[in-house]
Automatic annotation (TrEMBL):
Pfam families: Chromate_transp
Organism for this UniProt entry: Aquibacillus halophilus
UniProt cross-references to InterPro entries, sorted A to Z: Chr_Tranpt_l_chain, Chromate_transpt
Name the UniProt record assigns to this protein: Chromate efflux transporter
Gene Ontology molecular functions: chromate transmembrane transporter activity
Ranges that cross the membrane: 12-36, 82-104, 116-136, 148-179, 199-220, 270-290, 297-318, 330-347, 354-372
Keywords for the protein's UniProt record, in alphabetical order: Cell membrane, Membrane, Transmembrane, Transmembrane helix
Length: 395
């Protein structure tokens, strides 16, 4: 009985923290990794630094919404499969509800241009900078790994395609496999995944089964709901690089086919930029425009289902693979590349869309100091950022 109560307390704690992050995590997927690092790793210590870095590397490698998958993974490690679901629900549902409401109201508001939204973008600069500094110290301690990170920065910024990120990670894995196979890490990761390999295998089989069967069922039934599930599931399954990459794919799926107009799509895109949480929740807006609140919920379920199946299917095997010395060397290379990818994303789009004037830079420095030196909770930084952005907009 006590064990069951403890399990419920763990799930409740996951729900409370993930929901708070869901209401306050502005700035896109890279910023989300910064918020997760600050809350789950630095404050709660639910995972060690090395395990978090490995989880981020895995989720960068998988298709789908990387930051959401990291949140799911942390929830799974902390509270099992239910923990992963609760973590996802808390982090995602605030923006799902907001975007479903925006589906009805967004046309009457220019919220994407509001001053407080700009302030929240500056918050993302401070949070991501803090996370990158911490991760870089751990993951690029020597010249070889610093060089891998540098190459990743240059490649990501100069070669901007849908497959750049996955290509850089694959090359880094090969380089790490060659250079670091015989090198032992001073800090061993310690992560236990409370999911059986049988369940993991079932999840992977279901992932590929749905990917293959849904288009066939769509053709056979000609049912609009099945068609919508297929479009969102395929979008969530085949996109590398996070939310911004999935947007053009969703536009091709729904605008030319007449599901919604170009104006409706762009209005929802503006709304998605203005709310916290994962950008994949843009699907909730599209689904609500197409089929009301039922469509919004179905679209959200369909686009995130592949992420769930992939993280459930890979985490149990990931733990054993990391014990292999050759795989560990490859991971060292991948982790260094991830630092470079994060730095590149910190510059574009986070820095370039947030730091537009000297006042913005000064405000970012204040927020960074509040977070790093004064050790204030992230939610205080978020509130200060929103108020400060509103005041800056009045100047």
């Amino acid at each position: 009985m006590e064990k069951k109560e403890n399990k419920l307390l763990v799930l409740w704690e996951i729900l409370l923290i993930s929901t708070r992050l869901g209401f306050t995590s502005f700035g896109g997927p890279i910023a989300h990794l910064g918020y997760f690092h600050e809350e789950y790793i630095r404050r709660k210590k639910w995972m060690d630094e090395k395990s978090y870095a490995d989880l981020v590397a895995l989720c960068q490698f998988l298709p789908g919404p990387a930051s959401s998958q990291v949140g799911m993974g942390i929830g799974i490690v902390r509270g099992g499969a239910l923990g992963g679901m609760v973590s996802f629900f808390g982090f995602t549902f605030p923006s799902v509800i907001a975007l479903m409401v925006f589906a009805l109201l967004m046309k009457n508001f220019a919220i994407a241009d509001a001053g407080w939204i700009h302030g929240l973008k500056i918050v993302a600069v401070a949070v991501v900078a803090h996370a990158i500094i911490g991760m870089a110290k751990k993951l690029t301690p020597d010249l070889k790994r610093k060089t891998i990170a540098l190459v990743a920065i240059v490649g990501t910024l100069l070669w901007q395609t849908a497959y750049t990120q996955i290509g850089i990670i694959l090359v880094a894995a090969i380089v790490g496999f060659v250079l670091f196979t015989n090198k032992s890490e001073q800090e061993e990761s310690n992560i236990s995944v409370p999911i059986s390999k049988k369940f993991a295998t079932f999840s992977l089989l279901l992932f590929f089964g749905l990917l293959i069967s849904l288009p066939i069922i769509r053709e056979l039934t000609a049912n609009n709901w099945i068609a919508m599930i297929d479009s969102f599931y395929r979008s969530g399954s085949l996109v590398f690089g996070g939310g911004h990459v999935v947007l053009p794919l969703l536009e091709r799926e729904f605008v030319p086919t007449g599901w919604l107009t170009e104006q409706e799509f762009l209005a929802g895109y503006g709304a998605a930029q203005a709310v916290p949480g994962p950008l994949f929740t843009f699907a909730a807006y599209l689904g609500a425009v197409i089929g009301g609140w039922q469509g919004g919920l179905l679209a959200t379920f369909s686009i995130f289902l592949p992420a769930f199946l992939l993280i459930f299917g890979t985490l149990p095997f990931w733990g054993s693979l990391r014990e292999n010395p050759k795989m560990r060397g490859a991971l060292m290379g991948v982790n260094a590349a991830v630092v470079g990818i994060l730095i590149a994303a910190f510059y574009q789009p986070i820095w370039t869309s947030s730091i537009l004037t000297p006042i913005d830079f000064a405000f970012a420095a204040i927020l960074f100091s509040m977070l790093v030196y004064f050790k204030l909770p992230p939610w205080i930084i978020v509130v200060t950022g929103a108020l400060g952005g509103w005041l800056i907009n009045l100047i």
